[in-house]
Each structure stands twice: as C-alpha cells, then as structure tokens.
Design brief:
Helix content: 40-55%
Distance between the termini: 118 Å
Largest sheet: 2 strands, antiparallel
Strand content: under 5%
Number of strands: 2
Order of helices and strands: HHHEEH
Length: 174
C-alpha cells in the first residue's frame, strides 16, 4: 500500500506543479463578465425585438380595422351607385331634367349612306310612371302649383305614330 500512496503522491505532485496553487479568481473574472454581458445583451435584444413585434402587431390590427371600415364604406357607396343606375331611377332622373325618350334611330354606313329615318324625340307619358293622385283629383295643377311643360311638335314635323322599326344590320356576322 505504501507503493500506491507514493504513486498518488507523485501523481498529485506532478498535477500540482502543472496547476498553480492558490485561488485563481483573476482568471475567472473576465469569463464571468463575458457571460453576464452576453446574457444581458441577449435579454435586452429580446426585449427590443418583442417591443418591435408588439408595435407591428398593433399597427397591423389598426390597418385591418381601417381596411374593414373602408371596405364597408366602399360597399355602401357601390349600393348607392347601383341604386342610382337602376333603369327606373335613371328614367325618373332624366324626366326630372326634361329629357324624353329618343325616336327611332338612324344609322350611317361607312360609305355615308343614311339607313333609317331619323325622327325628332317627342315627350310621351311614361308607361311605368303611376298617375299622381293630386293631379287626377284636382285635374289641372301639380303640387308645386306649376304645370310641367310639354314640348309641342313644330308645325313642320307632325307627330307620326311610332312604328316599330328594327335597324338593319350594317355588317354581317360580326
């Protein structure tokens, strides 16, 4: 046993010579500072990244809300456009402006010939317009007290009975 104790003593002696004896805190201090700085830097960068992601998420939700509001507004405006562009609404507005339906159209061929007989548009009562109850009861004046003007045909053009005419096609097969 004495041989093994001497061997251990010899081995421990050699190891003791390789490593300095005494506290080695001077060698550990820079390493500990480096680890602490790396951890602190990582934590701060994580906080900054989290803040940036939260800001982006708030901005994204705000933009989604604005998009929803603008989509709703666009759909409401499209409904208004559709309502105003219905045939009945267009006809009513045109009559309010004093417009009348056109007569039978005339077409010009590329060589300059006129196809069809052009007619002057005359005001005819609208078949879809219901009679006003006050006008039928009173017999003469509209609610505003004025009679709507009706265009009278000029003496040179007598109102002809509207004949159903179909325009002749100007080109074949197109």
């Amino acid at each position: 046993m004495t041989g093994t104790a001497e061997q251990m003593k010899g081995r421990a002696g050699r190891l003791a010579r390789l490593m300095p004896s005494g506290p080695s805190t001077a060698a550990r201090t820079p390493f500990v500072l480096l680890v602490v700085l790396l951890l602190a830097g990582g934590l701060i960068s994580l906080l900054l990244l989290n803040s940036a992601l939260n800001e982006g998420s708030f901005r994204l939700s705000k933009l989604k809300r604005e998009t929803t509001e603008l989509t709703d507004e666009q759909q409401a405006l499209q409904r208004d456009v559709d309502k105003y562009s219905e045939p009945d609404a267009l006809e009513r507005r045109a009559r309010e402006l004093g417009m009348v339906p056109g007569g039978s159209p005339a077409f010009l061929d590329p060589d300059g010939k006129v196809r069809g007989v052009p007619e002057r548009a005359t005001a005819q009562p609208s078949p879809a317009a219901p009679p006003e109850p006050e006008a039928s009861a009173a017999g003469s004046a509209s609610p505003s007290g004025s009679v709507p003007p009706s265009p009278s045909p000029s003496p040179s053009t007598a109102p002809a009975a509207p004949a159903p005419t179909t325009p002749t096609p100007t080109s074949s097969g197109r």
